[in-house]
Amino acid sequence: MVVNFGHNYLVNPVDGGFQAAVSESTREWIEKLQTGYYLAGTAVGPHPIPTMVREFNSVIGKETRKQAMEKWGGTPDVLVACVGTGCNALGLFHEFIDDKNVRMIGVEGGGVGGNTGELHSASLVRGEVGVYHGAMCYLLQDGDGQISKTQSVASGLEFPGVSPELSFLKDAGRIECYTVNDQEALDGKHSHI
Q1: Which among 87, 118, 123, 172 would be 20 to 30 A from 9, CA to CA?
Q2: pTM for the complete prediction?
Q3: pLDDT given at position 1
Q4: What does the alpha-carbon distance between residue 12 and residue 25 come to, in Å, rounded to a whole number?
Q5: Cis before residue 48, ω within 30 degrees of 0?
């Protein structure tokens, strides 16, 4: 976590992975609203952060559209993106939201298995609506609203929440959401080597 105080930057190490880093950064920012600022590379949290991150990542979708037009003179039939917090998926999908003929598929970390009682990171597929880091989104939580542990072999996909915009697109029926468990992901990687 890097915190800016005027022209001085302070780097604080955070134990506990990505989720802990986002939580600690948000906490630090809230405590120092008058003297600090918050900049994240992930599409979670309060506005305008998810929108800014989506825009920074929009080069993915713009380049995809450009290359599709160059290669075959049209749009892709299907877009597939991994979903952790959603920044890369939003970067790809946002360019094509109004193209109703383009299917958009988000694939989340299914963790150690397909059963709902096993550890996973499938916020869109198996989560429920909640509020996390200042935004309403699909969230992995227990019956008491406490954040659930997550699991994914993929670094960065083991987050309990997801972008509020992806949550909206799911509810609107604009994106399809699926999971791939850890073993399936490893099998897929090795089958193409």
Answers
A1: 87
A2: 0.84
A3: 47
A4: 9
A5: yes
